[in-house]
Specification:
The protein contains one helix and twelve strands, in the order H-E-E-E-E-E-E-E-E-E-E-E-E. With 161 residues, the chain is mainly beta.
């Protein structure tokens, strides 16, 4: 018996039961024929008193095909600045990302054209219904100390046919 008058076995069962209730329900796998995804990015961030300093960041846009059987086709990867003006299109011809493959696009560290509110808009499709890709922007920079963080894409349009 322990302090509360409950045996060790009973308390272990209670803990496992409570943990089982707290565990999240298994997520349903999302599949699609194509999407348009918005991915926030930061070519620089401000720091210090009254935004007195800028830290320039290298941005890597990573688009990962999570489907183990089917490729997806990138149709467009556009880069926009803080004001929403399109700066670049990275995909001149469709790019095939094989099953479990990744495509990457880089904004160099001192290219601050996008600004602190830069973003990517990417469009992809597939001939088969595939698991949703993961689209992330990874920002890395250093001054006196290093900083790194990532943002995840947000689906803003779903292709249904």
């Amino acid at each position: 018996m322990n302090f509360f008058g409950i045996s060790r076995i009973t308390s272990t069962i209670l803990v496992l039961f409570v943990l089982g209730l707290a565990a999240p329900a298994s997520a349903e796998v999302s599949r699609s024929l194509g999407q348009t995804i918005y991915v926030p990015a930061y070519s620089h961030i401000y720091y210090g008193i009254k935004e007195s300093r800028e830290l320039f960041l290298t941005v890597t846009l990573s688009i990962r095909n999570t489907d183990p059987r089917h490729p997806l086709i990138l149709r467009s990867v556009q880069y926009f600045n803080t004001q929403g003006a399109k700066l670049r299109e990275y995909v001149e011809a469709p790019v095939k990302i094989p099953p479990l493959g990744t495509a990457e696009y880089i904004i160099k560290q001192f290219d601050k054209e996008g600004g602190s509110g830069a973003n990517f808009l990417l469009r992809w499709d597939s001939t088969a219904s595939v698991t949703d890709p993961i689209a992330e922007a990874i920002m890395v920079g250093s001054d006196s100390q290093g900083v790194s963080f990532l943002t995840r894409g947000q689906v803003i349009e779903e292709r249904t046919k």
